[in-house]
Predict the 3D structure of the following.
Amino acid sequence: MLAAVLTGPGRLELVERPEEPDPGPGEVLVAVRRVGICGTDYHAYDGTQNFIEYPCVLGHELAVEVLAVGRDVTRVAPGDRCAVMPYLSCGACVACRRGRSNCCERIEVLGVTRPGGLRERMLLPAAQLFPGDGLALEQLVLVETLGIGWHAVRRAAPGPDDTVLVLGAGPVGLAVAQAARRTAARVLLADPVPRRVGFAAGAGLHAFVVGGDLVARVREHAAGELPSVVFDASGNHASMERAFELVGPGGRLVFVGHTRGVVTFANPRFHASEVTLHASRNATAQDWEQVLAAVRDGSLDATAWVNHRSTLTSVVDDLPRLASSPGHVVKAVVDLGPEEERP
Ligand SMILES: [Zn+2]
Ligand SMILES: [Zn+2]
């Protein structure tokens, strides 16, 4: 079986690996059909991802087809097409016991700390599979990205009185904006890259290019007032520090992206405005059920984001190119399966 293995920063190789064994109790053997590529993969490739352990098989955004199930598995059946939740939680730590499996103390993530899906077949715990029930592989492969945005929005829970600002118009920023506009009065999206802003505007979002006096720019787009909820989806250190200045009085700031550096902020303004700061990591099964329901009823659709395609063979050359110019592609997907049957 072929697998794309990242042996260290800058070293992605296609290797022949032994076949997976038959699924044991609670396990499912799947054929990987689509793999989404994102910033996590680019950072793993260039050696700047916070949690990666080499060697690693990348691939945490997965759409798969069930080939065989182990004894006692009833959640899925052979032939089912599923999205795969890549976060493996322990179920026993204080976070898991409180329903916060997304920040489990012993969390493992497929494609980051455990072998991911850039390979032809893999064994998975049945609980990680979310049946698509008729959804296309192209929709299922985007559930992970949409889940990140969905969870971040649930952290701040914007309502009809809120103006939301999303910093960063990559796939995560787009996912946050799509989820936020279901409930917030106004959603703004800002990014320094005109190409990204153009794409977001084309998707019907109120997007603008960051430049010059950012506070003034934001006020200009938010009817004179600073937004009550700000999401930083850039993972950019300078952007994360600047985000504190953009939150209106009594507002919330959510860090969806993360950085290796120490983030500092001016305490007087933070205190005076009584800002609430949230981190947002991964997503929960509840987030995924809600995302799948929204994709199914058509109110959440990200398929237009996919504007680059690779195969398991070509990704070895494509990933370095994509990693060196991340703003050029909104969403890259590796296609390992049969063509989608279009209705
Ligand atoms: Zn991702
Ligand atoms: Zn846990």
